[in-house]
From TrEMBL:
This is Molybdate transport system regulatory protein. Residues 114-180 form the Mop domain. The keyword Cytoplasm does not apply. Signal peptide: none annotated. NCBIfam families: ModE_repress, Mop. The keyword NADP does not apply. Transmembrane segments: none annotated. Pfam families: HTH_1, TOBE. Belongs to the ModE family. Residues 115-123 are annotated as: Required for dimer formation and molybdate binding. One of its GO terms (molecular function) is DNA-binding transcription factor activity. Keywords: Molybdenum, Repeat, Transport. SUPFAM superfamilies: MOP-like (SSF50331), Winged helix' DNA-binding domain (SSF46785).
């Protein structure tokens, strides 16, 4: 099965992340792998979350009792990606030999977009509903989770969206609203249940939450420490993540 194009682009543009995967495979420890790859522990997990979200199946799985703390191991899919990357390096070398000058490489670099959005979820178009100048795009994520995005009809045409098109849904962390699981969902809003995996407190602002969706994909969101305390929410607890369809940006491979 071919890799999603967004994941392929990240692999080509970010070889440090492949090095991280290689170190995880060798050492079975996220702590040691991050150090060997020249990354902080947090940066390593952010990179893994992003790659796992873009892949059809997780590349890295947590394990208990890892050597050196922070146990992690590559999944079968992760090892397959490593093998493909070795083949890709050979192709890259051939492309570099064929490039006429550096402007060719600069052009390729501009065509491979990176984004500041922390949350990037790989999915496919399940349905398109026209609503005047806008279209509501139904997306199916890994594990059968579904969300909606609202974009202009012109954007739908420009992205050449149709049923089955692979897309990346981009959602800024600040656009996510958190609520308790029993809170009513506002009409027209996306709602996903997620488990709090990590809370990073900030004495000068909201806490940063690392949330795991039912399908294993990761979201980053912010919440006031007092709100979390009031509702008894902490690591291991489940909450509701809401966001408007208009807050979902869509990207497709070039």
């Amino acid at each position: 099965m071919p890799l999603p194009a967004p994941l392929t682009q990240h692999i080509v543009r970010r070889p440090q992340r492949i090095a991280l995967l290689q170190h995880i495979d060798e050492q079975g420890s996220i702590t040691r792998a991050a150090k060997a790859a020249g990354m902080s522990y947090k940066a390593a997990w952010d990179a893994i979350d992003e790659l796992n979200n873009l892949a059809a199946r997780p590349l890295v799985e947590r394990s208990t009792g890892g050597r050196g703390g922070g146990g992690a191991r590559l999944s079968d899919e992760g090892r397959r990606v490593l093998r493909l990357y070795q083949r890709l390096q050979v192709l890259q070398a051939q492309i570099l030999e064929e490039a006429e000058d550096s402007s060719d490489l600069d052009l390729l670099g501009r065509l491979m977009l990176r984004t500041s959005a922390r949350n990037q979820l790989h999915g496919r178009v399940n349905a398109i509903h026209a609503q005047g100048r806008n279209d509501t795009i139904e997306l199916t994520l890994a594990g059968g989770l579904r969300i909606e995005a609202q974009i202009t009809h012109d954007s739908t045409q420009r992205l050449e969206l149709e049923l089955g098109t692979a897309v990346v849904a981009l959602i800024k962390a600040g656009w996510l609203e958190l609520a308790t699981v029993d809170a009513p969902v506002p009409a027209g809003s996306n709602s996903l249940e997620a488990e709090i995996e990590e809370v990073q407190e900030d004495p000068q602002g909201p806490s940063e939450l690392r949330l795991t969706l039912r399908n294993g994909q990761i979201l980053c969101a912010f919440a006031e420490a007092e709100w979390l305390k009031t509702h008894g929410l902490g690591v291991g607890k489940t909450l509701q993540v809401r966001f408007l369809p208009s807050y979902v940006l869509l990207g497709t491979p070039v």
